[in-house]
Design a protein that fits this description.
It comes from Desemzia incerta. This is Adenosylhomocysteine nucleosidase. InterPro entries: Nucleoside_phosphorylase_d, Nucleoside_phosphorylase_sf. By secondary structure, the chain is of the alpha/beta class. It has one domain (about 1-110, about 125-260): Rossmann fold (3-Layer(aba) Sandwich). The chain is about 30% helix and about 35% strand. The chain is built from 6 helices and 16 strands. It has helices at about 15-25, 60-70, 145-155, 180-190, 200-210, 230-255; strands spanning about 1-5, 10-15, 30-35, 35-45, 45-55, 75-85, 95-105, 105-110, 125, 130, 135-140, 140-145, 165-170, 190-195, 215-220, 255-260. The protein has a 5-stranded mixed beta barrel, surrounded by 4 helices. A two-stranded antiparallel sheet has the order 1-16. β13, α4 and β14 form a beta-alpha-beta unit. The radius of gyration is 19 Å and the shape is globular. The relative contact order is 0.25.
Length: about 260
């Protein structure tokens, strides 16, 4: 028998400040822990929701996302939170809908002899190797957000009142970068709008398990503007607020077909 069901949505945040707004909106929820990773199961406006605190960094994000998919079987994942700005046209509290996610901490350097120094401009980006179901290895440098989820995020962009919303490219690295030349190099060569520490790992795991994925990031600080603000908690709340609007849009318009 073919049944129509609304999607089960999971929203991730790495830090308390990136999930607290969601938990407050839930009001009542059940917390489950696996290892060091916490999952909160509840509802917001009658929409079933799983909130996942992944913890910081790519290893944590990969482990937490694997558990999330294995234990709860979400129909889609929204990975959201804060980011440092790369685009000088983006101010603190502006939000990026991540159309593409790239790994900006994975490079191969050509040989240079001792005392010849370093030459980052000659570093070559390394690809991730994804094993397909038929056994083939596919190389990927970019993971793309699901187009339908991306469209839903675009549809509610006008509801975000904390700044502007852009569709852009998010770079992921286990690196808190404050070197302006390095930031500008990434922005110039890879067109990154901002950088953070989890999205690429989440996208890779979601891709491996064929779970639709969307990344959203709110700028919490920027070295390439004159904002003079570093506010992860406020940016985290704003991003969660917008991500929840995206989730509601998806929930209202989507259904998932299940065969019994």
């Amino acid at each position: 028998m073919l049944m129509q069901m609304k999607p089960l949505i999971a929203i991730q945040g790495a830090m308390d400040g990136e999930v607290i707004g969601l938990l407050e909106a839930m009001e009542t929820y059940k917390e489950e822990k696996f290892g060091t990773y916490s999952f909160y199961i509840g509802e917001i406006d009658s929409m079933p929701l799983i909130v996942s605190r992944s913890e910081i960094g790519m290893a944590n994000a990969a482990a937490s996302t694997t558990i999330l998919i294995d234990k709860y079987h979400p129909d889609l994942i929204i990975n959201q939170g804060t980011a440092g700005g790369h685009d000088p046209n983006l101010r603190v509290f502006d939000t990026i809908i991540g159309e593409e996610i790239i790994h900006i901490n994975s490079f191969m350097s050509p040989h240079r002899d001792k005392e010849e120094g370093m030459s980052p401009e000659n570093w070559v980006p390394m690809h991730s190797f994804i094993r397909e179901e038929d056994g083939r290895l596919e190389e990927k440098f970019v993971f793309k957000s699901d187009p339908e989820l991306l469209s839903a995020a675009r549809d509610v962009a006008g509801e975000y009142s904390r700044g502007k919303v852009v569709v852009g490219k998010i770079g992921t690295a286990d690196f808190w970068n404050r070197e302006i030349d390095r930031i500008e190099w990434f922005h110039q060569h890879f067109q990154t709008s901002g950088e953070e520490m989890e999205a690429y790992a989440v996208a890779q795991i979601a891709d491996a398990f064929k779970v639709p994925f969307l990344s959203i990031r709110t700028i919490s600080n920027s070295e390439v503007t004159d904002d003079g603000i570093e506010d992860l908690d406020t940016a985290g709340r704003y991003c969660a607020e917008f991500s929840l609007q995206v989730a509601k849009k998806i929930y209202q318009q989507e259904s998932v077909s299940l065969s019994n």
